Each structure stands twice: as structure tokens, then as C-alpha cells.
Amino acid sequence: VSATPPSQTPAPHLVILGTGWGSMSLLSRLAVAPTSCRVTVISPRPHFFYTPLLAGTSTGTVRTASISEPIRRHLAPFLPPAQGQPRFVQANSTDVDFATQEVSAIGPDGTPIQVSYDHLVVAVGADVNTFNIPGIHEHAVFMKELEDGMKLQRKLHDQLEKASAMLAAGASKEEVAKLLHFVVVGGGPTGVELTAELGDFLRDDVEKAFPAVSGLSKVTLVEAGPKILATFDPHISEYAKGRLEAHGASVQTGTMVRRATESSLLVAKKGEPDASIDYGVLVWAGGVKARGFTEKMARKIGGVQTPANRPIRGLAVGPDFAVTGVSNVYAIGDCALAKGCSPTAQAAFQQGKWLGRALRDHGFSPAAAHKNGDPFVFANQGSLAYIGASEGVAELKNVLWDNHPEWGGGENGGGDAVVEGKGAFAIWRSLYFSKLLSGRNKWMVGMDWLNVWAGGGREVSTP
Ligand code: FAD
Ligand code: NAD
Fold first, then answer.
1. 14 Cα: distance to centroid of ligand 1 (angstroms)
2. Where in this chain does the record put each External alternative NADH-ubiquinone oxidoreductase-like C-terminal domain (predicted)?
3. Burial, 109: exposed, middle or buried (Cβ in 10 Å; 0-12, 13-18, 19+)?
4. Among 63, 224, 288, 461, which residue is least crowded by beta carbons within 10 Å?
């Protein structure tokens, strides 16, 4: 690929903030015509990682490296911002001057960085929401970034060693059981899938490697609402709860965490006095909120971006993902309030794909793509979740049975289907495998799964 644009006018300089789902799919569409723009990606993370398999990294079902993909490999085809300048800048964007079209960022060593743009795509994702509950930031592990998976894995291994040493030194079974009580807060898909993975780890691996203490270990899932997986079909919520419990977890719904200390949670249950739950390891999976950067941008733009009496959940965008109130700025993924989309990888991926194609094919005017009869339409493919012991749940949208009303399908599209158990697990695995972004990731995840399936076992110590 030539480093010089084909025409005399320099190709527009596109700056992308973030290396997540939205950015990766945007880049994949632009890569079809890599000389159409000069690209700079700014992100604290020099890699993309496959969030749907994150929970499995904490228990060693898959390795961290297997689900991450260096961003630089995907930037090689593009023109650099200017001769010799980097296509990727490792930094946290902190501000945008919409008048001069300049992004300010801070590098890992605190170096201030300025990058000007012709077009800006904001795809910085979302942040963990702790609802300011006291003690959560200090005492809980999150399940959001690759580092969180690594941190939890180390914590699990350390805790198992500590518990074994304590039991050998004569500690009571109650004391040891407290250390091996793994509590996950949040019965959304993140919390449920982590509970499932922890159950697999305790059953398949801890039992063999730590036989003296394995019987004392337990996983509890705490959810404030009346059911887990509340956004799924009601039957799935019930089924998942039953199966998690059958696999050995305790599922406490209607239980709101109010505070965390170093070793216990204060919880409130409707109509009951507050109670406490002792834990050895605490994981917070209570949901997401807008990042500080996103909030700052929204406040700076004002108007519709700052609705009265409501928290800022993301940047308001038009149907072409243009950020309302400023020019040449687009937002996609979890940081954008796109109509009909929830904060999922599925939505971020489809948005990035549409915007990349629109920028590429319509002279950097996605509004033209929208007007010319190619509007963005979110195709909801449904939701899937792993629930442990090679079982899953799947709520599939518009599936196979088009034109088969007797199976729930309509004339104008497919029907919805609920699949549970081993069948759903097979769908979950095949679908998530097929969506891995690179052949390298596919090979490595395939090998990791094969190893566990063949009895090779997950890691029980952190090297
Ligand atoms: P992200 O993928 O979060 O990427 C944001 C990027 O921005 C990152 O590279 C980050 O480092 C970078 N960034 C952050 N701050 C800045 C800054 N100031 N400046 C520049 N860059 C910045 N969704 C599904 O559809 N199916 C699933 O099975 C599924 N499983 C999930 C499992 C887990 C454990 C989690 C946490 C989420 C899961 N999701 C799933 C949700 C999905 O991962 C998110 O909706 C998706 O990642 C959003 O994509 P995004 O591009 O908006 O943001
Ligand atoms: P979520 O918002 O879906 O679930 C968080 C849960 O935590 C809620 O059920 C909430 O009631 C509970 N909670 C909050 N505060 C609490 C408290 N104080 N005490 C007890 N419970 C409390 O968050 P998530 O599971 O992290 O998912 C975030 C996004 O990522 C969602 O859009 C989700 O669809 C997506 N995701 C999808 C998958 C999948 O499709 N398999 C997997 C993970 C995440």
C-alpha cells in the first residue's frame, strides 16, 4: 500500500477513540478502501478483546491472549495521519475542542497529546456503574476489562492457597468456608456467566487440585431485582436460576447490596431486616454507565445532550450517528444513545459496520448514506448466555422459521425461539466462535476449549 494518497488533496484524517467492538467493525469496513482516509486511533488499550469470553479468562477456560487482538495489525493497511506519524496512539482522550477540531489526550506516562481531526468517531464504550455504593470500588473486582479477568484469576488462586494453608494450620471449617465464598453481585448476563464459569472451575478443577478445601467452596449470585437475566424471556430467567442452583450455586434474588466492607456485604431484602453476607472474593457485575469523558463531552455540547433531571447515559446521535450539536463528530457503541439499541457488542458491531461503510462509500457524509436509502437498521439477533456445566440459554430473534406461522414465524420475517440446555450451549459456542475476529483468536480459543474438554484442566496457579 502506498503511503501517499492517490490525489493531490490529502485524504481526510479520521480519528477514532477506542479499540472496542465499535471501532474494530468500523475499521474493518474502511479497510476495504484503506486509501480513502488517513487514520489515527487513540485508546489506552493497544488491543481489542472479545468481551463475551472474558468471564472464562478468570477461571482459565480460555487464556487472556486467546481473546485479544493487537490493534496495530488492523491499522497497517491505512495511510498514516502524516508522513512518519503513528496510526495508533496509546492514550486516554480527555477533551475535544469542537471548534478547532482537536482531541486532547494523556499518554500512560502523563504526556499531554494533541491530535487534530477532519472527522472524529467516539467509541469509548461504557464504565462500570457502582451506583456509589460504599466499599464497592475498594473491595470488589470488576468484570469489564481484560485486566479484571486476570486480577480475579490471581485472586482465586491466592485465596485457594490461603484457605489450604489455613486448614492445614488448624483453622475451623467455618473460617475456611468464608474465605472460599465467592460472591457475584448482579444477575445480568455478566454476573450469570461468571457464576457459571466459577461453578465449572470449582467442580472440574478445584476438586482435583485442592481436595481438602474444595467441599468448603461456594458461589453466591446476588441480584436486587426479582429475577436474574431480567432482559431475557421470563422462562429463561426461571430456567437459568434453577440450573445455576442445580450446579451448586446459591442465587439470591430480591437482595440489594447497600455496602461492602473488606469481608462482608450489607444487603437489604424487601420486608426483612438488613442482613450481612460474608465473602472471601467479591465480584461486582452491577451494570454500566457513561464514562467521565462521554459525560464531559455531553456537558460541553449542552442542549439535548444534557436532559434535565436525568443522568447522562451517552451522547445523543442522529440516525447517521452524527453527534447532535456538533459537526464532523460521530458516536457509536455503548457511549452513543442510538435508537432501538442496547449497550451490547452486537449493537456496537452493527453500528460500526454501517458507519464505516457510509463514510467510505458516501464521501465521508453518512447523512448522505442515510438519505440515499441505506438507513441503519438494527437487526436484533437475540441474546445468548452460558449457564455452566455445558448448558446455555438462547433467545433467538427472526430465526429459521420465516413463513412458518405454526412455528411462531410471520409472513414478514422469522419468529423468535427460546432454546435451553445443551442445545443452547452448542449454539452459544458455535456462534461466539464464529464471531471471533481473527483466525489466530479462533485457533487459540479452539485449543483452549479442546484442552478443557479433553481433561487437560484449567490453570490452578498463576505463573
Ligand atoms: P468497548 O468494546 O468497551 O470499547 C471501548 C474502547 O474505548 C476500549 O478500547 C477502551 O479502552 C477505550 N477507551 C476508554 N476510555 C477511553 C478514552 N478516554 N479515550 C480513548 N479510548 C478510550 N455484548 C453482547 O452483545 N454479547 C455478549 O455476549 C456480551 N458479553 C459481554 C461480557 C462481558 C464480561 C462484558 C463486560 C460485556 C459484554 N457484552 C456483550 C457487552 C459488550 O462488550 C459491549 O456492549 C461492547 O464492548 C461495546 O462496544 P464499544 O465499542 O462501545 O465499547
Ligand atoms: P446489567 O445491567 O445487565 O445487569 C446488572 C444487574 O445488577 C441488574 O440485574 C441489576 O439489578 C443488578 N444490580 C445493580 N445494583 C445492584 C445492587 N446494589 N445489588 C444487587 N444487584 C444489583 O449489566 P451486565 O450484566 O454487566 O450487562 C451490561 C451490558 O452488557 C448489557 O447490555 C448486557 O446485555 C451486555 N452483556 C451481554 C451478554 C450476553 O449477551 N451474553 C453478556 C454480558 C453482558
1. 21
2. 381-452
3. exposed
4. 461
CA-nearest of 17, 41, 232 to 121 is 17
Q: How far apart (Å, rounded) are the C-alpha atoms in residues 442 and 455?
A: 20
Closest residue by CA, ligand 2 atom 28:
287
Q: Where in the chain is the domain with CATH 3.50.50.100?
A: 13-128+289-371, 136-286
For residues 2 and 35, the answer to whether their CB atoms sit within 8 Å is yes
356 alpha carbon – ligand 2 mean position (Å) = 29
Enter the pTM of the model. Answer: 0.95
Nearest to 77 by CA among 129, 44, 35: 35
The residues, any chain, with a CB within 8 Å of residue 232's CB and separated by 6 or more, are: 240, 383, 385, 393, 395
Q: How far is CA 185 from CA 58, 248, 281, 390, in A?
A: 16, 17, 11, 23
Fold held by 136-286: FAD/NAD(P)-binding domain (3.50.50)
Please write the tens of the pLDDT for every residue from 178-223: 999 999 999 999 999 999 999 999 999 999 999 999 999 999 999 9
Categorize the per-residue pLDDT at 399 as very low, low, confident or very high, splitting at 50, 70 and 90.
low
* Run of H or E residues at 54: helix 54-59
Closest CA to 353 of 83, 44, 121: 121
* ipTM exceeding cut-off 0.90 for this assembly: yes
Residue 5 grid coordinates:
494518497
Distance 190 CA to ligand 1 centre (A): 12
Q: Is the CB of 187 under 6 A from ligand 2?
A: yes
Q: What DSSP character marks residue 4?
A: S
Class of domain 13-128+289-371: alpha beta
> Could you give the CA distance from residue 396 to residue 64 in angstroms, rounded to a whole number?
28
- Please identify which residue in the block is written with the cell numbers 479499540: 19
